[in-house]
């Protein structure tokens, strides 16, 4: 396949990568940046916290659902038309969020924002599939995912900084500005899809089922989405562990969380370095083993001190994101067509698995730290067993012969 980044007359190669990274970061930017504003929003609207939290929960639900729509639409009509439509909805809804007069309006506009913004995640990975060949694709995915991983660390800090001179409305105006930048990039973007689907809209959405019936894609989808269970279980419980369990301050908690975020940034680039000497199968095995061993550390010594907990869980964080570039690349390789549908399913499954992790850790555990350790051990061992089984089966399409390591 030709590298169609050369055809980006206005963006160029680096501009295309920057646009893909920005689109891929829509979820953390749209959620984490306004987390510090939640208490202020509850006071402003005089609404209970559980009602204000619906602005977050409903966003995730409709973001996941929206991806299942935009992916097939981009296969049918092209990446650019889908991006222009979805990002325009995102910008308009962000402005409406900033102008909301009631909590119910804000919830409704956040749903609209999620539907529009979900086009970014659905289409960005499909663009990578369109443009880059198998081997180069892994490096691009690692670069993009490293850039994206900065967002969860910086977004809450940026949101807290903005609240020092503006209200929660200003946060949504900032999201509208980010969306506008993405819209300008999408306008300059030249479509990368080689051949558009000729089926009807209903049949386009039905292509999701066709992709899911691909046993190679489905098995890899389940396998590599599983790491989101443990990752989001940690994210959902981290403030309770550090602040309630260890009694650290909110500021100290942010430092410990930033340490974990640095692992998110480091993981994808670690894969690039390791892949220079080791095969992707070996690296994936090592990642799942590391996740399990990290879980053992969390279970055994994680409750001794906040620093020990942080360093016990850090290897699992690094290993989890280290496995993403080869995992994403292998999933994309299973589908020569319907890249938009495949991309949307990958994003949707990751969100669903993450939600499962949040639900599991919210159960009445005797010790959250021990529960996290067990979850990481289970994910690591299950992932290792499944990968060992799947990699030996003939249903998985590996790298093209000319590019295989």
Automatic annotation (TrEMBL):
One of its GO terms (cellular component) is plasma membrane. GO terms for molecular function: xenobiotic transmembrane transporter activity. One of its GO terms (biological process) is xenobiotic detoxification by transmembrane export across the plasma membrane. InterPro entries: Efflux_drug-R_Bcr/CmlA, MFS, MFS_dom, MFS_trans_sf. Coiled coil: none annotated. It is found in: Cell membrane. Keywords: Cell membrane, Membrane, Transmembrane, Transmembrane helix, Transport. It is a multi-pass membrane protein. Residues 16-405 form the Major facilitator superfamily (MFS) profile domain. The keyword Cytoplasm does not apply. NCBIfam families: efflux_Bcr_CflA. Belongs to the major facilitator superfamily. Bcr/CmlA family. This is Drug resistance transporter, Bcr/CflA subfamily. It comes from Methanocella conradii (strain DSM 24694 / JCM 17849 / CGMCC 1.5162 / HZ254). The lineage of its organism: Archaea, Methanobacteriati, Methanobacteriota, Stenosarchaea group, Methanomicrobia.
